[in-house]
Fold these 3 entries.
Entry 1:
Amino acid sequence: MDYATNVKILKFHPEKCKGCLECEKACSQVHFKTNDGGEKSAIRIHKLEKGYTMHVCDQRGLCLDMCPVGALTRRKNGVVWLDKDTCIGCQACVGFCPIGAMRKADIRIEPFKCISCGACVRACPEKALELVEVKIANIKQVVYHKLGG
Amino acid sequence: MVEGQIVIEEYKTGNTHHTWDLKKMQLAHKVLKNFSYKKSDVIKGYANRTLYVNLSTGVIKEKPVTDEMKKKFTGGRGFGLKLLWDSIKPTTRWNSEENELLITTGPLCGTTQYAGSGKSLCLSVSPSTNIVCDCNVGGFFGPYLKFAGFDALEIQGKAKEDVVIIIDGEKGTITIETAPLEETNTHLLSEQLTQMYASENTNKSRQKVSVVSSGLAAENSYWGCLNFSFYDIRRKIPRIKQAGRGGLGTILRDKNIKALVVKIEHFDGISNHPADPVSLVQVGTKLHREIRNLDRYQCNMRAVGTGHLVEIMDAYDLLPTENYRFGSFPKASKIYSQKFYELFTKIIPDGCWHGCTLACAKTVDGYTVMTGPYKGEKVTVDGPEYETIGACSNMSLWEPLWVLEFNFYCDTYGIDTISAGTAIAFYMEMYEYGILNKERCDGLELCFGNAEAVLQLLHWIAQGDCSTFVKVAAKGVRRMKDWIYQNGWGEKQIIEDSGMESKGLEFSEYVTKESLAMQGGYGLTLKGPQHDEAWLIFMDMVNNTIPTFQMKAEALHYYPIWRTWFGLNGLCKLPWNDIEPANNAETSEPSKVPEHVQNYVEYQNAMTGWNITKEDLILQSERCYNWQRAMNVWMGRGQRKDDWIPFRAMGPVTEMEYISRKERYDKQLVEKLGKSEKDVEKMTVPDKLRILYEYRRDQYEKLTDAVYYRRGWTPNGIPTPQKMKQLGFTDKKMLKMLEDKIAADERNRLNVWGGFYKKGEHPPTTDHQYWQKWN
């Protein structure tokens, strides 16, 4: 089987962002069919003292090995995908995500994450977001299971 | 080495592949009994009914779980005790018709969000001890039993031929079927049944099946264990965890049960229907993060499992070697966790239940079997865990591959590595002294370190038709002691003092000689010498935080009761204190891990919707702890004489042991017994041994006095009716039995403290019927 070598991840242009959160609303529409954004969005925009920052999954895939039931897989397009019908809601991936990008909303037991669908990119009126292709080998991270400190 | 981001479908263990004619096997099944039940949801952690199966009469029925039962017994082991009390008699022995095998769950069992929430609690009257034995075990069976609709499974009676009991949560049926063609040994049987009963030929389907089985050696020994399977989608095999202690696998086979199978239709993260899933997720995720951040600096469970303890125990003189004669050994570094890490397959998750990120269940895949019927086959070895490695060091086996071999055969033959290892270590010591010899052991050279002889003994036990030696050896230390006496082969004292059993059960793998509190942790127990009640060695010996009898007694009150709590809920104890919050050392009582206790308060509340406090958790446990002790009394045991431990657990038995730690013991003679250094120099080793012996025996008696008093028991160790009433019990049969027993003890002058109190020393109280005032 051929595996993806590249994956599209989100790139943020902070100088363009005005904090309208249209991206979050679009994302929560994808995942929960609501415009709530916030905890129901896989992409989060945080206000800093000056400007904004983006917080989202970068498809590094450390969570893949954490899933006891195989609900997390890397799809053909390289995206790390959580199949919520297989997921048993253990939150191991949430707890072990090194950047806290595996999300959990109170209304559903299964977590959710960025699937690089581009809904946020399309929703952004300022063009502050774009999808860029990177090599998986360059971003891949393996969960810690080594001996010693 | 396989590194992470593994494509699940592609990982291969390299194990020998088997193809079986499963259709033929299944066609040979004869359905003996079929029972349908109405499927229903679990509500706030409870299925609200238990399942009763009688193999003699064919009766299968549901029993309701009442609110009263939840209040008094909580669940899990508590439910098991209650069901046993209602079903057995004080004269029931392990192989009695009415003896039951129970597998119970608990309200928190099956939760996926909080690490260590998949334990089943198994209970029965043990062949080793003739009292109730409780064992906790991982694997999927318990959670699936609950999701199939039952808080507990209760099996009474015996089948006439080998059967499997199938609990089909998909169809809502229970069937008892004969199973003549399947293997008996676990590594094959669990694979056959998992494939046979999976609804589809997929990984996903196989993961929804769990099998409980034992093996051929369980039939011929008192060490039978129950293997609980959990299907691993990466390795594509059912892996196993053991309910090891007390011979429950022996009971399974005595009932002619080849296996129990449970399958479920579906489950997800809220199949327990918690009252407050949001809080549950919060507390569970917090623990996941703690494990992620800190495990590598603390126990390193995720890398090496419980084997990390080997080097620590060796460093502190606590690793049992040569039948507990020593606590460390020059060759021990050959079995440090690093050596097993090199052999382990480094793929994870490795939890024995979903969502356990402590992930201590390690395997060696593609291990080539060196001896016996499976010689040359490549298999997955589940483990070894610390206790198994410790059992091997006890037999002086220092080659990791022999540890794996011992581990594999014990598992597949269905016997407990702890009991087998501890017992064989004792036989080896007897061999060294010439009390046993080649002739008496059927030509087996059972000397320390002879791994091939150890494996040969296991193969003989599994084969069955064997000599008196093998038959007795397979029943463990207690029966071997009696057999040696009967034959007049050795001096009673050395045999009695060095065979490491209490109540008939073999010790688990820690040297307790220098920790009085830990001696109590092994002796003053319900089922026998197992470390699951209390592990106080570091508090007592290394950190010296419990120096007085009173403080030790407090610890021997709190910890056994606290640790019992896990078993009432279907939880594993490891995530309580084998991972600690970063600031734990700065808390007022670090050894209790206060933040984690608070987690459990929140966890139980979030599941059940109750509003309990940490004191209530202790009360839940104290009830069941006392109930089990009272049941021991009811069955003629549970008294001071039954809480005795062999002297090897208290101090040096032989001159060699004394000389090997001469400096330590000489110093104690000066500091603790008031001897002058000059006197000590003049004394012979046997004299020193005798003095130390008397002193330590008396210390143990005094500890027993203090502990019984703290627990609210009589000086003979009987829970008083007053205590039981305080705990909320009103069962007249129980209260009357205890009252009668205490009156009989009074007549027989057994209500007296055991310690020898010199001038200036006092027993816990001078009122030897102190509980009478509690009315």
Entry 2:
Amino acid sequence: MKFVDEFRDGRLAQTIARAIAAEATPDRRYAFMEFCGGHTHAISRYGVADLLPPQVRMIHGPGCPVCVLPIGRIDQAIHLALQRGVILCTYGDTLRVPASDGLSLLKAKARGADIRMVYSAADALALAQAEPQREVVFFAIGFETTTPPTALVLQQARRLDLRNFSVLCCHVLTPSAIGNILESPEVRELGTVPIDGFVGPAHVSTVIGSRPYEHFAEEYRKPVVIAGFEPLDVMQAILMLVRQVNDGRCEVENEFSRAVCRDGNLKAQQRVSEVFELRKSFEWRGLGVVPYSALRIREAYAEWDAERRYVLDYRGVPDHKACECGAILRGVKKPTDCKLFATVCTPENPMGSCMVSSEGGCAAHYTYGRHRERAA
Amino acid sequence: MSRGRPYVRPLDLKRGCVDLSHGAGGRAMQQLIDELFVPAFAGGTAVARGDDGAVLPELAYGERAVIATDSHVVSPLFFPGGDIGSLSVHGTVNDLAMMGARPLYLSAGFVLEEGFGLGELARIVASMGRAARAAGVQIVTGDTKVVEQGKGDGVFITTTGFGALPAGRALSGAHARPGDRILLSGSIGDHGMAIMSLRESLAFETEIVSDSAALHDLVAALLAAVPSSSELADPARGLRLLRDPTRGGLASTLNEIALQSGVGIELDETAIPVRPQVAAACEFLGLDPLYVANEGKLVAVCAAADTDRALAALRAHPLGADAAIIGEITDDPQHFVQMRTGFGGRRNVDWLSGEQLPRIC
Amino acid sequence: MCLAIPARVVEVLAEDQGIVDLGGIRKQISLELIDGAAVGDYVIVHVGYALSRLDPAEAERTLALFAAAEAAMNEGAADGAGGTAA
């Protein structure tokens, strides 16, 4: 696979590892947050942590749209499928996320709900066309990467005047979440949670560009290096962050220049802004209610907005009391600091958001990294 | 059982469908058996048919009977490299082979859905017969039931296999010991991705073919070169166990072995063969080939001293041409399966949690 | 988040559709979010949509950067060898 395999080369990994080890000052601590679940996954899946010197520590961020999807939103989707009799189309990722009453979309399906896994938003639209007598709802989750395709199908639905199709919009915004982490007291108050820099999103940035991060670099004095999701990309980004810290720089650098430019994909941004507007607030699992951190469907597309069409109220549902996901997502705690980790909270029976998707910090550690606990 | 006269009209394999009478025990069912199943399963030494069960000949002196059963549901029913018929033979033959047994007989239970085309059923049954003859096993008894439309997925097939385990031979998932080597007979993920590529919502064009195959001949070749440790009566030598990594993939099979034997496992990622197309399809769908199903591969664990001999025996057989040594058994009270990644790091290889679902993130 | 993979455009179809190839796997995707995709281009594919075009020259540059990591270290030249501030 061209442009994939080259970026997984173990020999080059050793080269970059040696450079990181040599350039990271031994008596200094470097803590970098990889925002995206894609980076978390790459770090765990390829064993990147084994190639880092002990003074460089990675903190897993909240950039997994499945993990941050609150229970109340899944409840809405289940309600539509079970009580309102719609065909609910969803990406495979959300099927196992636990909701209220011991349910998940998969369990709702077992109770008779018509839930279909789709690979693409376009598949959901096609299903609505094929089954005009049924109401089809697309459960739209994801960050800026996944939003433009949803915008396109909403525009298409309006063009076709397809009245049996609507979208339950749960699209969220990356910069708001980064801002929320940087504003949290633990991070702001010096010394509690040192985050020395961010590995910035890969595919989100292909859409929004690198410009939105410039604010963080300036305002919060944190270096950001946008990086691809292949393991060498992550290694290189860590090296670039170490160099910024050593030099006292706080810049936005772009390691993923093969796919990301400063302005991003303007066409995609245009489509998104035609269809969506900012929500005043949105609840994130783990982070709580974050102002202006998500999108809702504009008035012009109200017909195709499942929240309006089915008059859905949002009801927040708290996580398990002992769950430490919020603190873990902000880098305050590690998965192993949580009493529930690997005892009652496992990938088969996730209690908190970080255990839900394989990209979540807890699930990644449970699945790929438990051997590390012994070494530590 | 032979009938005095043929039925008024032969089964209409072009347009005919399964209906409820085909499972009701009357003449329609008998006709289905006589015209569709019996000819397809013909061949081999005579085992009397028509009674409620089959009486099997005696085993050789010292041999023990091994029994294994497997239910087969697959969608779609026909896929590149096989169909539910051949799969239902291979699956059970392989279960017997993994025990070290020589597969001999199968029973076959069919659950048919009302409305299922008789032509398709005939194709499946013919494929089953061919697979059985190729594997040298006889289908000696069976059963057919019909469920109403909407209550089945065309056809479900349960096969039960009987095999003969030679005197002294013992293979078990509990026999792995630290220091043993782990061999894999070829590339992983082919069956699962061949099926996945045909699923409506994921459809992509590919030449991936299911690896569905009967492995007993490969096993015989391996055991001829490296008998089980119990046959050799030497704990430092011989074959410990065989497993076919079907559902849950290689990762789940290795975790089963680690747990059953109370050991750990250390894998070398670069040694595990994955076809480029399977790797690419997995990238598209966010799947890990370690968790994708196989239907014609085996995992063998043997004493370190016999590793080369075992590898050579596997590679000399067409079904084991790409065989590789993929890791070793370690001492680990937590029974972790770990892997040295091609990238130079380490990771756990956990059980599959839930179902292997395509993901977008 | 956001599983996406670079694949090569092998066919451009009507209505902003296209066929991409990844390691011998072919799939129809939408090219609607990018302008002027041509056969031979590599595009980043996410949920069946091309999100951006991949720049082969930049990819080469980044790979060269990996190889140069050690050289830079040996020279003690730790100046920002990465991509410029976007």
Entry 3:
Amino acid sequence: MRAFIGFVALSLIAVGLALALYHIPFGQDRMDVARDYLARSVRDTGAPNVVTGIVVNYRALDTLGEVTVLFSASLGVGMLMTWRSPGGGRPLPGASLIVRRGAGFLFPFILLFGGYIFVHGHLTPGGGFQGGAVIASAFLLLYLGIPGYLLARRPLAAIESLTGITFVAIGIIGLAVGGYFLNNFLPKGSVFSLFSAGVIPILYMVIGLKVGAELAGVVANMIGGGEE
Amino acid sequence: MNAGDPMVYAGAVGLILIGLFTVITRRNLIKIIIGLTLLDGGVNLLLVAVGYIQGRTAPIITPAHPDTARMVDPIPQALVLTAIVIGLGVTALGLGLAIRVYGHYNTLDTRKIRGLKW
């Protein structure tokens, strides 16, 4: 019965989506605002990566909201998991020698790669969220590889709070200097160089560290344990 | 337009439908969360596909490709970047809730969880 209702509902949704997509032919130029963004991105923001220009400059306020949503989710997971009844979680089975040694060996390189991704977010594909996810995966690897590994929560919480405050502080400085929140107040520099695009690399570094700390915290809370 | 192009939409819509079907019919909370993830992926794929323009490159200006008239729509990509992160948060929170529910009721079956009947 439930499958039948589901099937009927899905058929309706499928027909609706098909009717809607019928009027949107695939692969054709429908840009309106985007053409303007593409043409002005380098001049306005200094970032050759137009997606970064949109996410961290034109629509940086939305990104602040997005970071807040991720923070709330991380906070929610933390609250849910610390109330766990004692003795509920099973210990992880021990990893093999290869995983143990490999985790220790790869950890600094994964951190370096994550840092590279968010530092170069304004020039190449990538950015704060992607780099932060890579950094969190390094900590996940440590959890899987090293039995009894515990992530220190205090530095994690400190990084998360400090980066959040820095994000808002940069926005307020922009408001004071240029007249609107998250204004790109630093000099743009020369295009395609690492130190360019004003506050964008700084904001993306802040986002990368914050997302990395939050996701590592989610991993730590999911796996359980910890000193608190 | 090539003959295979509607398949891109069909794939994305297919993922959305599979995800919705899983959410509606499955009774295991973990499977419902997997369905949500599939739904999320399908919607993201659909958004990026709508922003794609035939024969154009990624919206990243490089010294070798400075021509912005030959790039795809960057706005759906920026939107999807946000949506992926939100999807991750939803999944993490959902899994956390599922673990708590299992700790309380000792089951993940939605039929046996009192107060979740529909």
